[in-house]
Specification:
The chain is an alpha/beta fold. Helices cover about 55% and strands about 15% of the residues. It is built from 9 helices and 5 strands, in the order βαβαααβαβαααβα. The protein has helices at about 15-25, 35-45, 45-55, 65-75, 90-105, 120-135, 140-155, 155-165, 175-190; strands spanning about 5-10, 30, 80-85, 110-115, 165-170. Helix 1 (about 15-25) crosses helix 9, helix 2 packs across helix 3 (about 45-55) and helix 4 (about 65-75) packs parallel to helix 5. The structure holds adenosine-5'-diphosphate (ADP). Adenosine-5'-diphosphate binds near residues 59 and 94. Its EC number is 2.7.4.3. One of its GO terms (molecular function) is AMP kinase activity.
């Protein structure tokens, strides 16, 4: 079904995993800026070379560059009928870029899923992930940088979307299935369902 969604949450909130589940259930592509950047780094593209050191330090890639990457991705055919954004927008400048882009297509976001996870829980999950996956930006220093950016720059975007009445705050503590069920309950209340309404 048509749904234009954004999932927001601190590092270690499970937003990547939940985003994929929601995207699959609704049949819409998941656009994760982190994944796009990591794929480019891995493939050694020009974009990848530009962003490697920024990502490893846990800093934000410049807004203009990130927004151009997202516009390009959302311009592809599979995103015409809906998409789930994960990791973008991440600050107020990016919210403006996205607004402008969507307005040009006479579209708007239908819902913003905000995963709420206490800092200590985020930190312990990230430490576990660092041990398992060894992501280059899961060092203690880069994690602290990313969490700080989340609190200062990303959390405020929820106020903007909140005034538009599209934010659903979801308790992100619990099993993966419990959290997924909470997300779908909130989406259903907005008329966004995984199966066509009869
Ligand atoms: P996390 O949420 O754990 O930080 P992501 O996979 O979402 O992981 O992002 C990894 C990195 O990619 C970020 O730390 C940042 O360097 C870059 N990045 C992702 N999304 C954005 C964005 N919207 N703006 C700027 N940089 C971004």
């Amino acid at each position: 079904m048509t749904a234009r969604l954004l999932i927001v949450g601190p590092q270690g909130s499970g937003k990547g995993t939940q985003g994929v589940r929601v995207g699959e259930a609704l049949g819409i592509p998941v656009v994760s800026t982190g994944d796009v950047f990591r794929a480019n780094v891995k493939d050694g593209t020009e974009l990848g070379l530009q962003v490697t050191s920024i990502i490893d330090a846990g800093d934000l890639v410049p807004d203009e560059l990130t927004s151009a990457v997202v516009r390009d991705r959302l311009g592809q055919a599979d995103a015409a009928e809906g998409f789930l954004l994960d990791g973008y927008p991440r600050n107020l400048a990016q919210v403006l870029h996205l607004d402008e882009f969507l307005e040009g297509r006479e579209e708007s976001l239908d819902a913003v899923i905000a995963l709420v996870v206490p800092r200590e829980e985020s930190l312990s999950r990230l430490t576990a992930r660092a041990a398992e996956q060894g992501r280059a930006d899961d060092t203690e220093e880069a994690i602290a940088t990313r969490l700080g950016i989340y609190e200062r720059e990303t959390a405020p975007i929820l106020d903007v979307y909140g005034t538009r009445g599209i934010v659903d705050e979801i308790d992100g503590v619990g099993s993966l299935d419990e959290v997924t069920a909470r997300i779908f309950a909130a989406l259903e209340a907005r008329g966004i369902t995984a199966t066509p309404a009869s």
